[in-house]
Design goal:
The protein has nine helices and 21 strands. With 341 residues, the chain is an alpha+beta fold. Helix 1 packs antiparallel against helix 6, helix 3 packs across helix 6 and helix 6 runs antiparallel to helix 8.
Length: 341
């Protein structure tokens, strides 16, 4: 998803819409918003700040937070805390509190979806070829032997204070919830330290947050991927976000070929293979970005049964099918959805 704010440069894929003030509690009436964009965690970052006078400070602080997340949680850095914990299978490892928080979020996602969103698929991801950043993968991967799946292995991950124990034979991969966790952490940090309303997108996982008593509504463009956004695909629409999270999970972007078969990064923990799904993309609202992303990832894995599961869990979601049709859960705010112009 792409934030629809003033572009920082013509190359930034955003529109020229500005945040809309909401009610009598609008934040800093008359203040001009600003957008900053850069890359981190192997993806794009868009940061909207309600007051342009602090935009540079906000961007610097956000970048520092994301650097800390990368150092703690990346499975592509040999010096990361996550890699150390995975390599010490069965042993307690002292780690950065940021990794502890990210693992807690991932385990909560696993528990709330009964394992549909599983953070212990690290060995499978590596064997499937996703053993380096996607930019380095190059679209093809060697056909290594796939590991045996461990049912509910995530339930055996242990945390005590700032120590983590990953079960022997398993490896954590926080890719399913990591970007959303990072977006939540950035938004909470900026509001706490700078007292400014913000919205941040980390690879399409979005969190809006504001100081108490303030309220800003941000327009957001929903698309399966940046290509669909830039081509103004018919599946693209614009919605609004005032607080909480909005996330999109998609099977269209991160794809590669392994032994003649096409893989994508959303794996089904029940089969150990890419999720077989009729959905190109699923978008959902949540109390935070991590909750929204948990719902959208589970929906991709569930496939045809996703709409019923989302409705049962009272998730406001929009599902884009491969045939171009759109399905919405009963709580999706269709009155806020509008074509992108």
């Amino acid at each position: 998803m792409t934030l629809a704010l003033h572009p920082a440069t013509p190359a930034v894929p955003v529109s020229t819409h500005t945040p809309q003030e909401a009610g009598d509690t609008a934040y800093h009436r008359g203040a001009q918003p600003a957008l900053r964009t850069w890359r981190a965690l192997g993806t794009y970052v868009h940061l909207g700040v309600a007051d342009a006078t602090v935009a540079d400070d906000a961007a610097a602080l956000a970048a520092a937070v994301l650097d800390d997340v990368d150092a703690a949680c990346s499975r592509f850095r040999p010096d990361s805390d996550l890699v150390r914990a995975n390599q010490a299978g069965g042993q307690w490892v002292s780690v950065n509190p940021i990794l502890v928080g990210a693992i807690r979020v991932a385990l909560r996602a696993a528990d709330s979806t009964d394992g549909l969103v599983d953070p212990t698929l690290g060995e499978l991801m590596v064997a499937a070829g996703y053993d380096r950043t996607f930019a380095q993968l190059g679209g093809r991967a060697d056909a290594n032997a796939l590991p045996t799946l461990v049912s509910r292995g995530w339930a055996d991950v242990r945390i005590e204070g700032t120590q983590v124990q990953v079960p022997t034979g398993l490896a954590l991969d926080l890719g399913a919830t990591g970007k959303a966790f990072a977006a939540d952490l950035v938004a909470l940090t900026l509001v706490e330290q700078l007292d400014v309303a913000v919205v941040v997108s980390v690879g399409g996982d979005i969190r809006a947050h504001a100081p108490e008593g303030a309220e800003v509504t941000w327009p957001v463009d929903v698309a399966a991927d940046l290509r669909a956004w830039s081509d103004n695909d018919p599946g693209v629409c614009r919605v609004s976000l005032t607080a909480g999270g909005l996330a999109t999970s998609s099977v269209t972007a991160r794809r590669w070929v392994r032994a003649g078969s096409t893989w994508h990064h959303v794996l089904d923990p029940r089969t150990g293979r890419p999720a077989q799904t009729p959905w190109l993309a699923v978008t959902a609202y949540g109390a935070c970005a991590a909750d929204a992303n948990t719902a959208t990832t589970a929906a991709i894995v569930l496939g045809e049964s996703a709409p019923d599961w989302l409705a049962e869990h009272d998730v406001a979601a929009r599902l884009l099918a491969a045939d171009g049709s759109v399905h919405r859960t009963p709580t999706w705010p269709i009155q806020l959805e509008e074509p992108r112009t």
